[in-house]
Write a structure and sequence with these properties.
The protein is mainly alpha-helical and 273 residues long. It folds into 2 domains: 9-35 and 238-271; 45-233, f41 fragment of flagellin, N-terminal domain. Helices cover 71% and strands 6% of the residues. The strands form 2 sheets. It has a two-stranded antiparallel ribbon.
Length: 273
């Protein structure tokens, strides 16, 4: 191989290798600083695309879990209100039963009926004033809970229905009169209303259970997808540290090689001595 001074090929080769080592070292240092194996698209294009897809799924599932929890909250508010209505109807049963007795005077029945009408008014008030997040709980509209994982969608529907004395078929009932006949008729209607409320609470309970089950499934999905995303994105710290040590040695040997390659040119001057 001829000896010349036009180009220092060994030095160029050492410089190129050193630049590569330094670039790899910078990447490794960034991985250690961020804890992430992928910090840009160039690190792993395919891995980044998969991780971004998983991240979108996780975001959609987390919001769907919140949607389900909001649905549960709304239904629980309705159930609590219906529980109070049941207590009011039980009081109405007591009043109507008392008014049904032949030992009660007409004036006393009128007093009992006044209390009974107040109960019906309170049921109407509960039906119109009970709300969740600014929306009336008791309405004819069906509530749809939207759930998605960013790839597929599903909807869980629930219907609480209207709450009023009219909906419970109590509107117009009374326990007044000269005898207990009217009160006995009202008592039959009250018993039916209690059963209606019980059925509604059972339906609400079933919807709550379904939403809670859906939330539990989605929570498990989030955990699994998060683990998968972490496996792609997270840096293996022990392995990265080992790589950094190796690159550090290569950097030092590269510097030494470059210095040696440059010093070889000086040997040519000895030929001129």
């Amino acid at each position: 191989m001829p000896i010349g001074i036009l180009n220092n090929i060994p030095a160029l080769q050492a410089e190129s290798a050193l630049a590569t080592t330094q670039s790899n070292m910078n990447t490794t240092l960034q991985q250690l600083a961020t804890g992430m194996r992928i910090n840009s698209g160039s690190d792993d294009p395919a891995g980044l695309a998969i991780a971004n897809g998983l991240s979108a799924n996780i975001a959609a599932l987390n919001q769907s879990i919140q949607n389900a929890n909001d649905g549960v909250g709304s239904l629980q508010v309705a159930d609590g209100a219906l529980s109070q209505v049941t207590s009011l109807l039980n009081t109405a049963v007591t009043i109507a039963t008392e008014a049904s007795s032949g030992t009660v005077s007409s004036a006393q029945r009128d007093s009992l009926n006044s209390e009974y009408q107040q109960i019906l008014s309170e049921i109407n008030r509960i039906g119109t004033s009970t709300s969740y997040n600014g929306t009336s709980v008791f309405s004819a509209a069906t509530t749809s809970i939207f759930l998605t994982d960013a790839n597929s969608n599903s909807t869980i529907t629930s219907s609480v229905g209207v709450l009023s004395s009219t909906a419970l078929l109590l509107n117009g009932t009374a326990i007044s009169g000269t005898d207990g006949t009217t009160a006995q008729t009202a008592l039959t209607a009250i018993d039916a209303a209690i059963q209606t409320v019980a059925n509604d609470r059972g339906s609400i309970g079933a919807s709550v259970t379904r939403l809670q089950d859906a939330s539990a499934v989605m929570t498990t999905q989030v955990q699994n997808l998060t683990a998968a995303e972490n496996n792609i994105m997270a840096a293996d710290i022990p392995s990265t540290i080992s790589t950094l040590s190796s690159q550090s040695v290569l950097s030092q040997t590269g510097m030494a090689a470059l210095a040696q390659a440059n010093s070889q040119q000086e040997n040519i001057l000895k030929l001129l001595q």
